[in-house]
Amino acid sequence: MTHPQHLLIQQVCKSYSGNQKALDNISLELNNGMFGLLGPNGAGKSSLMRSIATLQSIDSGSIVFNGKDVCQEPDAIRRILGYLPQEFGVYPKVSAEKLLHYLAVLKGVRDHRQRQRQIDDLLARTHLSQYRHQPVAEYSGGMRQRFGIAQALLGDPKMLIVDEPTAGLDPQECHSLHHLLCDIAQSMIIIFSTHIVKDIQDLCSNMAVLERGKVRFAGAPKTLIEPLANQLWQADISPQQIPVFQQQFPLLSSRFIGGRCQVRVVAPQAPAPGFIQAAADLQDGYFYLLQQHQQSGLDLRQPQVA
Ligand SMILES: Nc1ncnc2c1ncn2[C@@H]1O[C@H](COP(=O)(O)OP(=O)(O)OP(=O)(O)O)[C@@H](O)[C@H]1O
C-alpha cells in the first residue's frame, strides 16, 4: 500500500556569512514521486537539499515533513530520511555489508535480524548482493552510487534526497540507477538534483528550477515547455551567422551535428528561409526560462505549489 508523504517548504531563506542569499524565499510543496531540481551552478540546489536533510540551519521560513518541523524535530526527521550527497566521502576498507550494518545501527535499526533482512533486501535491489563482501573502496563509480542509494534507504525512509546521483556514470549505470529510483519513488518523495535536463524530463512528475536562490519555476515538466508551443525554429547555419540571429531572437542553443551548426531560436514565425518548426523539449524550456529571466531581471512566475 502506498502511503502519502508530504513536504511543505515555506518562505525559506538562507545566507552564508553575510553573502547574497543562497536561498531567497523558497516555497515548494512536494508529494510522493520523483521531484527534479534544476538550476545553474550556485543556484542553491545543494543548500536547499542540505537544509531539508537537517544538515544545516535556515535563517527563516519553515520546512515541514509529514507534519514534523525539520528545524524543531531534526532527530525525528533523520529517522525517516535518506540522503545521498554529491560527494559521499572516503570509504573505509570494510566490506559493503559490514558498512551497511554499521550505518544501519547509526540509523537506529538495532535488531540484528531485522537489520540483516533489510540489508539483504537492499543489496538485492541495488544489484550488489554478489559484491557484498568486497570493500566499497574498491567498487566502480556506478557500484558506489548504488551503494549510496542502499545506505540512504536503510531504516525504510519516507523521503530520499539524491544530489546529482548519476554524475560520472556510464549510460548503462545511469539507466540502472534511474530504474531503481523510479521503482522506489512510488512509496516516497525523492528529491533529485541534476544538471542533466533530460533525466528530469524522463523521470520526474514534478520539478522546480532554482536560479540565484529563487524558485523561477515549479510544476510539471511539460508546463515549462508550454510557452514555446509553435514558437521554436531550427536550422543548420554557418557559425558566422549566429550573432545575426542572436541579435534578433532568443537563441536557445547552438550545437554541432555532423559538422554543421544547428541553432534553435524562439520566434512567432520562421526567422529566415531554411528554418523549420521544431518540437520543444525540456532543455529548450529550461534555457528559455533562464534566458528570459536573465534578460528581464524579473521572476517569470511566482513560486507555485508543485
Ligand atoms: N558552505 C558554504 N559557505 C559559503 N557559501 C556557500 C556554502 N555553500 C554554498 N555556498 C554559496 O551558496 C550559493 C548556492 O550554492 P549551492 O551549492 O547551494 O548551489 P548549487 O545549485 O547546489 O550549485 P552546484 O550545481 O554547483 O552544486 C553559491 O553562491 C555558493 O557559493
UniProtKB/TrEMBL annotation:
Ranges for domain ABC transporter: 7-237
Gene3D superfamilies: P-loop containing nucleotide triphosphate hydrolases
InterPro entries tied to this protein: AAA+_ATPase, ABC_transporter-like_ATP-bd, ABC_transporter-like_CS, P-loop_NTPase
Superkingdom as given in the UniProt entry: Bacteria
The keyword ATP-binding is annotated on this UniProt entry: yes
UniProt keyword annotations, A-Z: ATP-binding, Nucleotide-binding, Transport
A GO MF term: ATP hydrolysis activity
Pfam families xref list: ABC_tran
Protein known as: ABC transporter ATP-binding protein
Organism: Rheinheimera riviphila
